[in-house]
Description:
Layout: E1 2-7, H1 17-23, E2 28-34, H2 46-65, E3 71-74, H3 77-88, E4 91-96, H4 102-118, E5 121-125, H5 141-150, H6 191-205, H7 209-212, H8 219-222, H9 227-232, H10 237-250, H11 256-281, H12 304-312, H13 318-330, H14 335-348, H15 353-363, H16 369-380, H17 393-400, H18 405-410, H19 419-422, H20 430-436, H21 447-462, H22 465-478, H23 484-490
Cofactor: (6R)-5,10-methylene-5,6,7,8-tetrahydrofolate; FAD
Binding site for FAD: 209, 265
GO molecular function, one term: deoxyribodipyrimidine photo-lyase activity
Amino acid sequence: MLQVVWFKRDLRLEDHAALCAAAIRDRILPLVIVEPDYWRQPDVSARQWNFWRACITDLGEAIAAKGGRLCIRVGDAVSVLSAIKAEHGPFVLRAHEETGNEWTFDRDKAVRRWCKTEGIAFEENRQFGVWRGRKVNRDRWAQAWDRMMAMPAQPVPPLLMWERSVTDNLPDAAELGLTEDGVQVVPLAGRAQALATLHSFLHERGEHYTREMSSPLSGETACSRLSWHLAYGSLSIRETLQAAQARYRELPLSEKAWRQSLRSFIARLHWHCHFIQKLESEPEAEYRPMARIYDGLRPRPADAAKLAAWSEGRTGYPFIDAAMRYLNATGWINFRMRAMLMSFASYDLWLHWQESGLVLARKFIDYEPGIHWPQCQMQAGETGINTIRIYSPVKQGYDQDPTGVFIRRWLPELADVPDAWLHEPWKLTEEDRERLCPDYPDRIVDHAAAAKFAKDAIYALRRKPEARAEAKAVVQKHGSRKRTADRKRAGVKADQLKLAL
């Protein structure tokens, strides 16, 4: 029987369980469904589509090189599958499990209902170390992850028998109703680029990953830069992990910096799936705090003027604004800056994490819902279990950009401000501000006062008995069971996976 392999966020032929399962059974119809309704959701953007589109094109070329043709259909999934059934008769539908946003979750449930009604078998394979459902036992989760990641990565099947079908043209962003959003640096997509990026990180760029990943200056090259390739599946987590492990094993003991950096990177691959498991086990985490006592802590709707100032990089805090403008222009920024931006929105501006989270989701080309939403909650202090981390924008600036190279690059209106005042331009005299940076705004809030207000509000809730009871339940459902010693060796804390690898 015809095997329809539905590619979603797994745009590769290598280490593709659904493709391998199909290849040993019958002819394969490789399918990508472009769903216009998905691209109307509030967490997606043109920059994401443009990267995804390039990955789809690359997948089509890989299939063509193997003698097939990728079938692209534009429409809702159920209608597309109904049309394929009408054209080709009954089939088996195969795909990887997906932990996406609420829209994709509902879409997959609708597909399962249709398959049941039509007598179509829908077989899903696990793509990485995330287990389906709400009742995953975290006590054994890490060991199960280790076992899956230790299994050999599956090569492209040697025999691929293709079925051809009518295909649509890939739409551009405008055809999907997406407005170009000012991204200036378009990352190269596709399998070859993913492999080249992985190789350059493991053999050239990653030696000082542990030491250099925090600054937006050094992190631009020291970070792996694999996050968008993993998000769209040009690489699998297992391939990436096994390549890092192989590189680690071949390093001599004298290469201490390399070995420490690879241990840290390997730990973060584990945390990738740990966070996605949170959203899989509790889909409501996209829009409700894991600890329900925090419902209503921050006002909704958020202050529109503050949200816009933060989103556009005009808060009056130079390091915050430079980081945001860098993200706006590139679609990526390193982990500490993501945490800092979310911290500033959550504590200094007291914005609801979902509203600021939606803004960031659209900016991140590597948006991965299962990492993004638990991280937004964590950085906002609404999980009930994680340490409250309020980043000082001035201290972060001095620590990560002491001479102001990054600030001046992204805030040209501050180019003439001396180093002594660059991180705190509000300390300039009124006359000097008018002379040196007349177009830069005043700071939107006082950080010290805002941080005190936020701490007081959150700790007032945390002291309540019901908050402590909820925290225990959150730990039981979502907490890591990885041993403290393992985390120390890896150089990370249990709640410190950052948003980008």
